[in-house]
Design a protein that fits this description.
- The chain is of the alpha+beta class.
- The protein is elongated, with a radius of gyration of 33 Å.
- It has helices at about 10-15, 20-30, 60, 65-80, 90-95, 110-115, 130-135, 140-145, 150-155, 160-170, 200-220, 255-270, 300-320; strands spanning about 5, 40, 50-55, 85-90, 105, 185-195, 225-235, 240-255, 275-285, 325-330, 340, 365-370, 375-385, 395-400, 410-415, 420-425.
- The strands form 4 sheets. A 5-stranded mixed sheet has the order 2-3-1-4-5. It has a 5-stranded antiparallel sheet with strand order 12-16-15-14-13, with no helix packed on it. The protein has a 4-stranded antiparallel sheet with strand order 6-9-7-8, covered by helices on one side.
- Strand 15 and strand 16 (about 420-425) form a beta hairpin.
Amino acid sequence: MLWLCIRLPALRHEALAADEDAALARLSAWAYQWSSQVCHRRGDESRAPLLWLELAASRALFGEPAALLPCIQRELREMGYSHTCAIAPSPAAAALLTRGQALRCLLTQAGLQTELAPLPLDWLELPAETRDALRSAGLSRIGEVLAIPRAALARRFGPECCDYLARLMGELSDPQSSFRLPEVYRARCVFDYDLHDTQGLLFPLQRLLQEFQGYLRARDRAVLRFNLELEHVRRARGGHERSCLTIGLASPAREAARFLMLVRERLQTLVLSAPISALTLCADAFTTPAIMQADLFGTAEQRSGELVHLLDRLHARLGMEAVRGLQLQADHRPERAFASVPAVATRALPGTPSTTLSPRPLALLSQAQRIEAPARLLNGPERIASGWWDGDDVIRDYYLAQGSDGSRQWVFHDLRENAWYLQGLWV
């Protein structure tokens, strides 16, 4: 096994979390995208919080741990987390090596012993009285302690000292309590001061959305919407009130950059009723990611992606109900053959033919207009007899006609009324 340990000396402050447990849970969910075994340990007065990832089992997906480490560190820097990292064959050794400033990546036990030998004895996680006794014996380096026969250490300091050194060197199993991904995602930031401007939300939101992206990748899921809950300070009432923003997407997504773009658009039109003291991101409905295979030149997929981004920005700026599209309905009556629905991005099917003259005109009148019998019929008739099930049945013969101005018209003869109507135009 190979363990990556991440030491986070200022986690709670940088995560703006209510407590360290919440901060570790958020970062553990983010780290799960690279490993199926993630563990963490809370800090105390003398120790910083630690996060471990087992990377040996992830080689098939991400390659060698030394190549994956720069990617993990880059995301930590982008989220604004102070950290030191190390890779070692045991979790105890990886944790110990993070106490130094230099990045260490050790893949074998032989290399581990060489690297540990010159390090100070105080780095060992042994009881203080044990370290004091070792120093009084003239020892100052970890290599000097490892050179002492284990039996002699056990007689002097007990078997716990030997067990720790064996776990440190990877000679003894060191089971860790693994983190489990939650089924519902919820991450909360608590601010040290009240925010009076929505622009102040962008930096914590960038971190929250980056962590959310890691969670979605870990579960191989995407979202069509997520919620932002804003906690407002009401000083006159001495309490807090909440407002909720729903961020909707035209297609399933899990990219933090896309999320941030939509949130920024939404915040531009938001007027705060009171200062903000806390922010929560939550999502409880997940779907399959929209993964599209591009063709050789990628033009069709590029146009589809541009349409999705345009719809997302319109939804964020105007609201989901303000952006509408047309959807075909199973009805032969032209006025009922389509319906207005919330706009979504769709892809053209391969091989869909394009015609210069559609069998149906694109310009339909909102209500058929009564006309005189056309002078010239170019094509038809096409009979449509439908609607008997809803009490609005029709019997019509449709024709392609030419108007006096040369326009091409779609007209019908209503057999019940013996009258002619204009239904649409080709333009």
